[in-house]
Design goal:
With 135 residues, this protein is an alpha+beta fold. It is built from 2 helices and 6 strands; from the N terminus they run αβαβββββ. The model has no long low-confidence stretch (mean pLDDT 93).
């Protein structure tokens, strides 16, 4: 479980690095509404990030379907739509097998601040929400 969780953190960092390279070239992030690694729509993010990452990773214990913000579903989900500036922010949600550390959360860029923190505000959470806040 520890090695899979370490891989999850590493995979998400790789995706984030590719997203920042994409942003540097295009001035926005790819615009998507819940592209998830265990669904066919993950190919949308793969296509957008192809110049920046060889292969978009999948969760090492990927569930056959379902979003990672639901307990027991292992996948990576990407969202960067709505809230006042589609493509100006993004979030990635994933789930660990061992709850450890806080869920950092992400702030969207709406006029009324929208904070997404799918793991909640506890000291140790399994679900993590990371990304780039409004620019």
């Amino acid at each position: 479980m520890k090695s899979r969780d370490a891989r999850r953190h590493s995979d998400v960092k790789q995706i984030q690095n590719a997203l920042e390279l994409y942003y540097a070239d295009h001035g926005i992030y790819p615009i998507g509404s819940w592209w998830t690694s265990n669904l066919s729509n993950w190919s949308n993010l793969e296509t957008a990030l192809a110049p920046y990452i060889d292969e978009l990773p999948h969760d090492p214990k990927e569930s056959s379907s379902g979003y990672p913000f639901i307990t027991g579903n292992y996948a990576y989900s990407f969202f960067s739509s709505n809230y006042g500036c589609s493509g100006g922010w993004y979030m990635i949600v994933y789930q660990l097998e061992n709850a450890k550390g806080v869920d950092p959360g992400v702030k969207a860029c709406s006029m009324i601040p929208s904070i997404f923190q799918y793991g909640g505000s506890g000291a140790n959470t399994a679900i993590k929400t990371v990304g780039s806040s409004a620019r």
